[in-house]
Structures are given as C-alpha cells and as structure tokens.
Design a protein that fits this description.
Blueprint (H helix, E strand, L loop, with lengths): L1 H12 L1 H38 L5 E5 L5 H7 L4 E12 L1 E6 L2 E4 L3 E6 L3 H4 L5 E5 L5 E3 H7 L6 E5 L5 E5 L2 E4 L3 H4 L18 E5 H8 L4 E8 L7 H19 L3 E5 H41 L1 H13 L4 H35 L8 H23 L2 H5 L9 H21 L7 E2 L8 E2 L2 H27 L1 H12 L3 H10 L1 H40 L3 E4 L10 H5 L4 E14 L2 E8 L4 H4 L12 H10 L3 E4 L1 H6 L7 E7 L6 E11 L11 E5 H8 L6 E6 L4 H11 L4 E4 H8 L9 H29 L1 H9 L4 H37 L15 H27 L3 H8 L1
Parallel strand pairs: 5-11, 7-10, 18-22, 19-21
Antiparallel strand pairs: 1-12, 1-13, 2-5, 2-12, 3-4, 3-8, 6-10, 7-11, 8-9, 14-15, 16-23, 16-24, 17-18, 17-20, 17-23, 19-22, 20-21
C-alpha cells in the first residue's frame, strides 16, 4: 500500500524527473529496436539484391553417355523450370561483305529451344532484326561486318562449312556465366566468354552437331530460401550436392545462384559490423543519457529517502521505493521506445523490430541508472548524509592514466587494422563458414574510452587548477560576477564535468555518424560510377563509332555532360589488354576522377601530364611488374590499324601507373590520349559514351539514350549498382544513416535541455538563496548563461574533436573494403550546420526556461526545501 502511494506521488509530483529519465530509456529502447530491424533488413536485402540479377539459377552439364532426359527427370522441387541448351564448337566464322571476306577465330554455336527466351528473358537482349531464328552476337557481327540477311559460314572442326542466314543481332549480358565451366573447382578463376557466338534453334543445332555437341540444362529454381544469405547458401549447396549424388556422376551443376549468395554472405556480415560500429555507440550513449538523467535527480532522491528514513522507513522500504521508481521509468521508456522503433522500422525498412531487443537493454539501463544508486544509498547513507548535497569529484589520476593508456592502445590497434592487406571479413569461397576479425572493433572502442577520459581530465583540471583562467574566460558573460560564478562552477565541478562529458559524447556520436555516412555515400557512388563508367554509359564493340550521337544525347533533358571515350584492345608484348583513349581535359566532367585511380594520387596532375605528352600512356601495376617497366620508358604497343585491319606497333612513353579507371577491368589495362590513338590507328571511333546526369534520374536518361543509339548497350548507375555492388556498397544504409543522424541531433538537443531544465529544478535551492539575498534577474541570467554556455561550448568543441577522430578511425579501418579506397573522410557541412542550429536552439530555450522558472522562486521555496 505504501509503495502504491509512493508511485502515485511520483507520478503527481515528480513527473518531470520520471519523464527525463524515461525519455532517455525510450531512446535506448527505440534505437536498439530499430537497429534490430535494420540488422534483419540488411541481411535480407543483401540476399535479395544479390540474387535479383540471376536469371539462370543452375547450369547442369550433362556428362557424355547421360541423356538430357534422364538429367531432367532427376530434377525435383525446388526446380521450377528447365530448358535444354546445346553448346557446339566452331573453328571459325566467315562472311562476305563489301567485296571482302571476313573470318573470325574459334567460337561457339549455341542451340536454344523456342521457349528458352520466355523462361530466361535476361540472357539475350535484342538489338537489330528478328527475335528468333539464327542470331549473331554484337561482337561477332562487328568482326564479320554482318547484319540481318548476311550469310555466315560456320566452319566446323572437320573443315566442313554450314551456311546460315542471319535473322537478328543480339547481345548476351550474362555471357560470363552462360559460358562458365560447370562445376569448376573453388578458387579457379572464371573462364573468359568467347568473342564470337552464333545462336541456332535447338533442332537445327542438333542436325549440325548431333552427338558431337555438349548439352546443358538451364534451370530456374522456386527459391524457397531463408532470408539470411549464409543460410540460403548452405541450403542451396546441400540441394546441389543431393542432385549430383543422385545423378552418380552423370551431371555437374554450375550453381549461379549459390555463387552470388556466396559473396553476399560477407556483404551481410558487413551489415552486422556497421551495427557494431555505428549502432552500439548510440545504444551506449542512450544508456549514458539515462544515467545522467538519474544522476541529475540524485540529490532530490536522497532528500526524499532521508525524510522517509526519519519517519521510520526501513532500508527494505527504501529499496522498494527505488524499485517502484525504476519500474515506472522502465515501463514508460520501454512502451514509448518500442512504439517509436515500430514506427521507424516500418517507415525506413518496411519491417518490424525484434520486440524483445529493446526492453532488456532499457531494463539494464534503468537498473544501472536508477535502482543501483537507490539501493546503494538506502544501504549506506545515514539521515544526515542523505540530506547533504553531494558534489562529485573530477576523475582521479589513476583513471586519467588508464585513459592515456587506452589512447596509446587505440593507436596501435588502428595502425594494425589499417595496414594494406588487412581483412575484416573472411569468407572462404565455396564454404558456408564466415569469420570476422573483431580486432577491428577494438580500435574505435578504445578511442571512445580514451577520448572520454581525456575530455573529463581536461575539464576537471581547468576547473580545479585553472580558476584564474576560468574567471577570465567567463568575464565577457558574467561581468563583475566572474569570480563568484567561477567559484560556483568549481564547487559544482563534478556536475559541470559530467555535463561537459555528456554533451561531448552526444556531439561526437552525431559528428562521427554524419562524417562516416557522408564518406560512405560518396565512396559508394564512386564505386558504382567506377563500375558503370558514369551516371549513364553506352557501349558498342571496338570499331563502331558512337561520337556522332553526342549532339543528340546532349539534348536529352537532364543531361549535364557527355564525353566520348575510346575502348580498344592492344597487345603489350603477347598480352592482350583493354586500352582507353580519353580526352584528358574533358573526361573528368562526365565522370569522377579519384586520386586513388593513379599511382601517387593527384588525378588532375596525371591527366594534365597526359594532355601535355600526347604519346603518353598509363599502365597497370601488374604490367609494370610483368615487363619490368619504369616511368619515362619508351614502349611499343600494338594497336589495330583501321586501314589495314592488322595490329601495328605504336610508340608510347610510360607516364605512370593507373590502378582504376571507369569501366576498366580489375586486372591489366591502359589509359592513353584519344587524339594520339586516333592518329596512329587512323580511326577516331569512340566506342563508349559517358553521361553525367543533372536534375533527371539516370534511368530516365538511359531510356532516352536507348532510342537514340539502339545498337548500343546502355547502362545506368542505379541498375548497375543493384546488380553488381559488393562489400559495404551492397548495403542500403540510407535508413540507418537517417536514424543515426536524427538520433545524434535529438541527443544533442535533449542533452542541452536536460542540463538546464532538469538541472536547474534540482538546484533550485541555490537559485532560491540567490534570490533571497537580493540577486536580480540579470544576476540569475549571468549564472545560468555562464554555466550553460560554458558547458555547451566546451562540450561542443571537445565533441567535435572526438567525433572527427572517431570518424577518421572508422573510415580508415574500413578503407580496404572500398574500391577504390577513400582518400579522406567527407565532411557533411549541411548536417553540421543543422546540428549547430539544434544546439543553439536548445541552449536559448533552456535559458528562457531558467529565467522564467527563477522568477517564480521566493522565500516559500526555501521553506519548502527545508522540509
């Protein structure tokens, strides 16, 4: 009964204290619940995005002596559809055009059943002519100068020739997987697809190849898979092994779907790491909020315990009173936080949080912030001690020493984890196990710990041993009261240091999250732009010119810039490599040129050097090592002459190393001056168009470009990122970023408001005494503005330094995940301005509240507080 009355009294008379601590608990519960929803969403989204671009799930290579019908009959659910595909060899293709005969090298002849394209629509893309019949790929058509209606000879291995008439020209977007070696051993690099491909109806293919051709089954699965990529990969691996066992060696499965899930497993693990890197500090910060909110009301709670004890309350009853307050705080915070988590999760990720994720964390924060101090005071303090105001002291020297030791340890760990070749996530290819090197987490954790102690030590030392300096610093605000206010702040140094520390941690979290988010977003876009080439890119085979379409593309609404780029093939020794001819002064306007692209950095300087030395060339690291080259060397590279159709040697001067370049492969390639390449090869044809989008979406621009250049393959950055993104950039962090940024801003404003409003209410005895001895409104304002302003300025500056350091550590630790790695963190100035506005708004509102509350204080307040 007494505890029920106590609970009712808390709700009626101490609702402000309950609300302050309960709101902090709600922040912890809400953030934890929302982060649990993000963890679920991230794993499922990575798996969904990884498999979205897979059209053929399984490619089953039927062994000689096994019929395709038997292989089909052995399939069972989860197989949803399957089609037989024939693979035949051709020693060459020939076609007569313009009075000359064009001959290619060896190629592939594919046999497809009529229903194949309806079952697997993404495998073949129509360019010109009919959709069925005899189809020629774009590259082969370019080599043979062929078009619909051209007669092409298929030269077989026995030198026999079969003539076919071409009905259409097509492209094969997934040629790498279509021509894979089914069942290749894990760790073996993929085989490059053939340059020349001709597609026949399956019945016609069988008449040519009969039993000499190879047969595959292309299978589409029902995909009843777990949402977790690791579990889905394990399930698919088991189903594949089961099929191969039942076939007794008669078939080998090329599992395209599992291959994509294999890489997605590590991508999903990065989502867990980001939860720890970005989410865990927020959860801990919320717990600190709850602890501080409870500490602000510690004096009032002790006074209440003293009154109860003076009236005969036992320690058990005092403990029960603390438990009642803890229960009220926890219930209020858990209900509010869980509802907030549900709203946020539905809005950001269209999912629901794990309902039990937040309340236990909130309970732990409540027990530590409210119940533990209450139990300690009920057990240890006498009536007199409970009535005495307790002034906390600044951190001791032992703690400060631990802080500096943590800073040294953090530096060592960061140095280790940022070394070249260090891997955070290890996912052995083809195996379901994933290991995470959690040493990478230790650096940011130690940095947080060290930063907190250094800030606390500096603030405490300034108040204890820097009284004169403090007085000079606050004189512009406090005026003649500077000495009194400085003494006031020194006496309350524990409270002031705690306030500075709390605000610094809130600001540091907001800034570190904002800088990391901005750096991630910029690097994610750069990675996608590097793969795609630009916001929108169009490609045609070598020798086909696209630059004539530049004026038309430039007139497409929303196009900000168009840049033609040459894509040729060149021989460095006997090594065939991609060569990109660029206009050095213009290519950077259509696509990003990162310093990380070139050895030694400074992309602009490297391109300026290429503009000055037109016969210059940049080559890859691999080429420099393989051929023992050095900058300044004169080298000869064989290029295809447009007049003679033969490769001729062309002299270049080596300018340096290029590591990455838009649309370039990850291995060996060359970057040269387009004007020099055109002059030496007698062809100015540009095979690639790079387009920067303005205020219109890349997808809309790509759709318009396909009408202008129907023979080209047009890709936009959004779709390309959805299909090919790996690593951190495969994650959609927009929701997590919004959550963290909002939490950071709210945390800063909440901290300032709590520091002044609740803190003033708890220290109203001091302000009542000031009013009683004749202090005027301006004197109260000087005390409040000086203390609060000092806390806000010191906490903001310290938090900015700590947040910037934490952000640098996060970006550095994750640097090796990005391709190319970021040169430096990106500062989100707009968010920082918003954060500053939130801080100033909270400060002004708190001062207004203080002055209004102080005006209502009088002698009766002292009498009330004396009870």
């Amino acid at each position: 009964m007494i505890l029920a009355l106590w609970a009712a009294g808390l709700v009626r008379r101490r609702w402000g204290r309950l609300l302050g601590v309960g709101s902090a608990v709600a922040l912890v519960v809400g953030l934890t619940g929302a982060l649990s929803a993000f963890a679920i969403f991230a794993r499922a989204e990575v798996g969904r995005r990884a498999t979205a671009g897979v059209d053929v799930d399984w490619q089953i290579q039927v062994a000689p002596g096994t019929s395709a019908r038997d292989a089909l009959q052995a399939l069972r659910p989860p197989a949803r559809a399957s089609r037989i595909v024939g693979y035949g060899e051709a020693s060459a293709f020939r076609a007569a055009s313009g009075g000359t005969v064009q001959t290619t090298g060896a190629g592939k002849v594919i046999g497809l059943p009529p229903e194949y394209r309806a079952t697997f629509p993404a495998e073949i893309r129509d360019l010109v002519g009919a959709r069925s019949g005899v189809l020629l790929t774009q590259q082969t058509a370019s080599n043979l100068h062929a078009a619909p209606g051209t007669v092409v000879e298929i030269v077989l291995d026995n030198h026999a020739a079969v003539k076919v008439r071409i009905d259409g020209i097509v492209d094969m977007p997934n040629a790498d997987s279509f021509f894979q070696v089914a069942g290749a051993r894990a760790g073996v690099g993929p085989t490059a697809p053939p340059d020349d491909v001709l597609i026949l109806p399956l019945d016609r293919w069988r008449k040519i190849y009969g039993a000499d051709g190879a047969t595959q089954l292309h299978v589409k699965l029902a995909r009843h898979l777990p949402r977790d990529p690791a579990k889905a990969f394990a399930q698919l691996t088991a189903e594949r092994n089961n099929y191969q066992v039942r076939m007794s060696g008669g078939a080998v499965v090329g599992d395209n779907l599992a291959a994509r899930l294999d890489s997605a497993r590590s991508d999903a693990t990065y989502g867990q790491l980001l939860f720890l890197f970005l989410g865990l500090p927020g959860v801990l910060l919320g717990a600190v909020f709850a602890s501080f909110g409870a500490a602000v009301g510690a004096d009032r709670r002790r006074n209440e315990q003293a009154i109860l004890r003076a009236r005969g309350a036992s320690p058990a009853l005092l403990a029960g009173a603390g438990a009642v307050e803890s229960a009220l705080v926890w219930i209020t915070g858990s209900v509010t936080g869980t509802l907030a988590a549900w709203v946020v999760s539905r809005a950001l990720w269209h999912t629901t949080p794990v309902w039990l994720a937040g309340p236990p964390i909130g309970l732990a924060a409540t027990l530590m912030a409210v119940l533990r101090p209450a139990l300690r005071d009920a057990r240890r303090l006498s009536v007199g001690e409970a009535r005495r105001t307790v002034y906390a002291s600044a951190p001791r020297r032992v703690g400060i020493a631990f802080g500096w030791l943590a800073a040294l340890a953090a530096g060592v760990v960061v140095w280790i984890t940022t070394r070249q070749g260090y891997q955070i996530v290890l996912a052995p290819e083809g195996t379901p196990s994933i290991s995470v090197n959690y040493l990478s987490l230790l650096g940011p954790v130690l940095a947080w710990f060290a930063g907190v102690w250094v800030i606390a030590a500096a603030a405490g030392a300034l108040l204890v041993r820097g009284h004169a300096l403090t007085r000079r610093m606050i004189r512009p605000v406090a005026g003649n009261l500077a000495g009194v206010v400085a003494a006031w702040m020194t006496r309350l140094r524990g409270t002031v240091v705690r306030a500075v520390l709390l605000l610094a941690v809130a600001v540091a979290f907001a800034i570190s999250a904002a800088v990391f988010d901005a750096s991630f977003s910029a690097q994610s876009r750069l990675d996608a732009e590097l793969t795609n080439g630009a916001d929108v890119a169009a490609f045609v085979p070598p020798g086909v010119a696209l630059q004539s379409a530049v004026p038309q593309v430039a007139r497409i609404p929303g196009v900000a810039d168009v840049e033609p780029m040459q894509h040729r093939f060149a021989y460095v020794g006997n090594d065939l490599q991609d060569l990109y001819g660029v206009r050095p002064g213009h290519v950077g306007k259509a696509t990003a040129m990162s310093d990380a692209f070139f050895g030694g950095g400074h992309a602009k300087r490297k391109l300026d050097a290429l503009a000055r030395m037109t016969d210059g060339v940049y080559v890859s690291d691999e080429t420099v090592k393989d051929f023992a080259l050095s900058p300044g060397d004169s080298i000869k590279i064989r290029l295809l002459d447009a007049r003679t159709r033969a490769y001729v040697p062309v002299a270049f001067h080596l300018l340096g190393i290029v590591r990455e370049f838009p649309t370039a492969p990850t291995d060996s390639f060359l970057v040269a001056n387009a004007s020099y390449v055109s002059e030496q090869t007698h062809s100015a044809a540009a095979e690639t168009l790079l387009v920067r989008a303005g205020k219109r979406s890349p997808a809309a621009i790509a759709a318009d470009m396909r009408r202008i250049v129907p023979n080209a393959s047009v890709r936009d950055i959004v779709e390309q990122r959805r299909i090919t993104a790996t690593g951190l950039v495969a994650l959609d962090l927009s929701g997590l970023s919004a959550l963290n940024l909002a939490f950071g801003a709210v945390g800063v404003a909440w901290t300032i408001g709590l520091l002044v409003s609740v803190g003033f209410v708890e220290r109203r005895r001091h302000f009542a005494i000031l009013r009683a001895v004749g202090a005027k409104r301006r004197h109260i304002a000087a005390f409040a503005a000086t203390e609060t302003g000092g806390v806000v300025i010191a906490g903001s500056v310290a938090g900015a330094v700590l947040g910037g350091g934490i952000a640098w550590i996060l970006v550095s630790v994750l640097r090796g995940v990005f391709d190319p790695p970021p040169a430096h963190p990106v500062v989100p100035w707009v968010y920082l301005v918003v954060l500053a506005v939130a801080a100033v708004t909270g400060f002004v509102a708190a001062i207004v509240f203080t002055l209004g509350y102080a005006a209502r204080l009088g002698p009766e307040t002292l009498r009330e507080l004396a009870l």
